[in-house]
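Hey,
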Amino acid sequence: MEFAYVAALLGVFYLYAGGKKAVQSRERLEPMMGWVDTIPMWLVRCIGAVEVLGVAGLVLPPLTGIAPFLAVAAAAGFAVLQVLATGLHLVRGEVRETGLNAVLIALAVVAAWLATLW
């Protein structure tokens, strides 16, 4: 049951953030995500699509009972994504912005661990 709560929390975050990256213009994203000015827009869209698909990989396998190992892979993928995002923030000198990344890494690691118990 704990996995469901962590997966729901990660799912809501990544559906929101990934959905915005997938469909909004650079100008609409910049106030919230200053890093989009240094990344090609096609890559921002790809990151958004990966985040939305990651939610499906995190939530659907445990719900359907089909290939539950995919939930572990999706959670691990979110952890890797946030490690890379932390690196980007550090390269840009945005140390203060890494707090959310640390929380998301921790949640993704917990989700991966809980998914192995599911």
